[in-house]
Amino acid sequence: MCRVGRRSAPPGRAVTRAMLEDGIAPRKGDRCCMTPRDILVARPATRLADHSTSLTEARQRMVATGQWSASQFMGRRWPIGCVALEITQRCNLDCTACYLSEQSEAVKDLPLEELFRRIEMIFDHYGQHTDVQVTGGDPTLRKRDELVAIVRRIREKGMRPTLLTNGIRARRDLLQELVAVGLVDVAFHVDMTQRRRGYGDEIALNVLRQEYIERTRGLRLPVMFNTTVTNDNFEQIPEIVAFFVRNSDAVRLASFQLQAVTGRGVLGRRDARITIGSVRRQIERGADTPLSFDTAQIGHARCNRYAMTMVINGKVYDILDDKALFNNVLERTGQLPFDRQSRSAAVRTLVKAVLTSPPLALRGAVWLGHKMWRARADLVRARGRVDKLSFLIHDFMDACHLEKERIDACVFAAATNGGPISMCLHNAKRDAFILNPVELKTGGSVSFWNPLSGETTPAPVVLHGPIALRHRVANGRLKSARAASGTRLRTGRQ
């Protein structure tokens, strides 16, 4: 039974604007949390008649949930922000905030033909230029030739594959091979929830982050970093941000994901001090400047906040400080694909679109002139080099407290056997997807793949009873439980 609850405004206390910005108060018209039965009967999205209508459908969902505005990306630039394609449930770390289930380690890797079918399904739902996150578990545990084939297939469909990995097995030669077949960018997940030996805190982990960055040098592979914000590392966010600023020539996006009660994670509820607003302020401390997190809108306002900056000579300058200008630019560029691997190509696309409107071009030129004048000394010292660095704050929902409105406005989906579904909802009922037999069609014959044995049978084998976990996994969960109860582990100093 769920014993955790979503933070809300205290009884008898007025809801303030600050509380809304921090994500701790419901807005007018919000729907209540989904009941256990709501979660049980929830199904993946049905396929539309034509993926060209998916943008309209996304816009309608934004309108229905009260999230549609002139600054909304969802339904204007793309029909979905990202789709996670989990190619394995296996992982070589044992994170204290893991979103996998206790049963995940018992599940075999999906057949390659099923993954190819899911890639086709993603395309059928959302079309070209869809961002597909190749993930797991850790995707690098998949056979190398299969991982390469998966990335290649995504790219051949005109979609954009991203590799999400903890980096342990993502060596330079592997990244090089993946780039050759179409990998667009790589996201490294590095933080203290992973309990990597030899690292005492997030600042010490910057050494590892630097190593991962160096692996990508010269590959035309933009780098992103994911950081889970917990009670233990909240105060170190400014130092993490400062590291990303120093490496903005390679790092394009820094994502901060608030700790949630989901999956097999053992951290429990996060402190009340950790909110979208407080994390925003910590990022601004690290960037040493206020940032416009409220200009661009990505899905639901209580799920995501986004800021875009340029870094010149190590100094951060806010790009989204003119909301009206941003809205006008978004209107002109909403349907245009931007090349994330080439800054010059992306700039050309932007400039070409803006020049189609002389008034917009003039306003943009004035804004740029003011910005460059402010940065003139840094521009000289940097010899004209300007790097782009974006920040994303994502507040995943607790598995037992899913808000229907936020699920309906979700921009981050997981590809399941039956279609795409909100990632928060997927994590809340993961076993319902990963333990079900998978139907395979070969020619005119139908067979069923068993996720526990990896065998194919003429009829589906339905799981009954509990699954015996491997000793390593069970032992890891025991250590995590002890840590959560207050017994400190010396993982970083062993």
Task: Compile the SSE list and pairings.
Elements: H1 17-22, H2 36-41, H3 54-64, E1 82-86, H4 112-126, E2 131-135, H5 144-156, E3 160-165, H6 172-180, E4 185-189, H7 202-216, E5 223-229, H8 237-246, E6 251-258, H9 276-287, E7 304-312, E8 315-318, H10 323-333, H11 343-354, H12 358-374, H13 376-381, E9 387-395, H14 404-408, E10 412-416, E11 419-422, H15 423-428, H16 430-434, E12 438-442, E13 445-449, E14 456-457, H17 471-484
Parallel strand pairs: 1-2, 1-10, 2-3, 3-4, 4-5, 5-6, 6-9
Antiparallel strand pairs: 7-8, 7-9, 10-11, 12-13, 13-14
Describe this structure in words.
Helix 4 (112-126) packs parallel to helix 5 and helix 8 (237-246) crosses helix 9. Strand 3, helix 6 and strand 4 form a beta-alpha-beta unit. The chain has 494 residues and is of the alpha/beta class. The strands form 2 sheets. Strands 8-7-9-6-5-4-3-2-1-10-11 form an 11-stranded mixed sheet. Strands 12-13-14 form a 3-stranded antiparallel sheet, with no helix packed on it. The protein has 2 domains: 29-331 and 378-434, TIM Barrel, CATH 3.20.20; 438-493, no CATH class. The chain has helices at residues 17-22, 36-41, 54-64, 112-126, 144-156, 172-180, 202-216, 237-246, 276-287, 323-333, 343-354, 358-374, 376-381, 404-408, 423-428, 430-434, 471-484, and strands at 82-86, 131-135, 160-165, 185-189, 223-229, 251-258, 304-312, 315-318, 387-395, 412-416, 419-422, 438-442, 445-449, 456-457. It has 17 helices and 14 strands.
